[in-house]
């Protein structure tokens, strides 16, 4: 998910906690833990500062820092910071950190970018594709709760944001259940299927591959699939020149569930069909032919 959504999850988590009758420094520590634990896995964006990092960004982002292995490591680091900064020692802050980091990692598994949940033991990206990278329903639920808490001051904010959290969980469950149903139906027609959620709730892009043919359709659980594009992948093409001249292409090839190979008179390249819009994919790598 995007940075804003993870931040909203963190603030909602903070508001759901009972904070009455606790010292002010513990309240500040709770806010720190809630926000930082929901953001810290994305610290991997620093890989962009080196040339190797820019080449490997596709594979390294959402890789090791989003793995199961790193969940307790991040939680322990946050707990140590809390002890140093706020002088509190309650292990509750460690447990909350565990929850926040795990929430970040698992939610990221449900959009098309996926996470390296089992790094470093497996480089496979775990992705279900049932949530868009930016889900405005989550934003709307948070905004509704935020406004309601100021309009209805007689209702405890903790209770209101618990309703918000429940609404988010319901939306996630309904959205994911529908996506998995759509994907299961598509698996009857194709050899391989991937899913990419639309920004419109309960709407999905199905990417199906059979042989060297890739079809893109828009689908919901209650309507007939609508064809969007039919693509041909030049599977027989030798990609060695591409990988040698453009190292990012090899990274993309390993990162994507499957790619479409382009081999025409002007260029050789690959692209991820999950991100195909208006005649091209914004996740692609090419070299020009001479």
UniProtKB/TrEMBL annotation:
Q: Where are the transmembrane segments?
A: 64-86, 126-148, 160-181
Asked if the record carries the keyword Membrane, the reply is: yes
Coiled coil (residue ranges): none
Write out the entry's keywords from A to Z: Membrane, Transmembrane, Transmembrane helix
- Pfam families xref list: YdjM
**Name by which UniProt lists this protein:** Inner membrane protein
């Amino acid at each position: 998910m995007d940075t804003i959504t993870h931040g909203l999850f963190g603030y909602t988590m903070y508001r759901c906690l009972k904070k009455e009758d606790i010292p002010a420094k513990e309240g500040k520590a709770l806010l720190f833990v809630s926000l930082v634990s929901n953001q810290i896995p994305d610290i991997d964006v620093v890989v962009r500062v080196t040339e190797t990092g820019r080449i490997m960004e596709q594979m390294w982002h959402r890789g090791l820092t989003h793995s199961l292995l790193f969940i307790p490591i991040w939680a322990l680091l946050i707990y140590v910071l809390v002890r140093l900064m706020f002088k509190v020692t309650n292990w509750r802050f460690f447990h909350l950190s565990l929850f926040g980091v795990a929430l970040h990692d698992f939610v990221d598994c449900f959009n098309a970018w996926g996470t390296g949940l089992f790094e470093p033991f497996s480089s496979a990206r775990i992705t279900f594709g049932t949530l868009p990278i930016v889900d405005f329903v989550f934003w709307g639920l948070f905004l509704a709760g935020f406004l309601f808490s100021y309009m209805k001051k007689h209702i405890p904010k903790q209770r209101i944001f618990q309703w918000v959290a429940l609404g988010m969980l319901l939306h996630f469950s309904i959205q994911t259940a529908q996506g998995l149903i759509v994907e299961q139906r598509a698996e009857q027609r194709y050899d391989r299927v991937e899913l990419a959620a639309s920004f419109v709730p309960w709407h999905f892009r199905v990417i199906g591959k059979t042989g060297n043919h890739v079809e893109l359709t828009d689908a919901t659980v209650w309507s007939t699939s609508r064809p969007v594009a039919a693509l041909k992948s030049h599977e027989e093409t030798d990609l060695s020149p591409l990988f040698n001249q453009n190292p990012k292409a090899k990274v993309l090839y390993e990162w994507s569930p499957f790619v479409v190979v382009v081999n025409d008179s002007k260029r050789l390249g690959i692209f991820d069909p999950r991100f195909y819009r208006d005649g091209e994919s914004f996740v692609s790598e090419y070299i020009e032919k001479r």
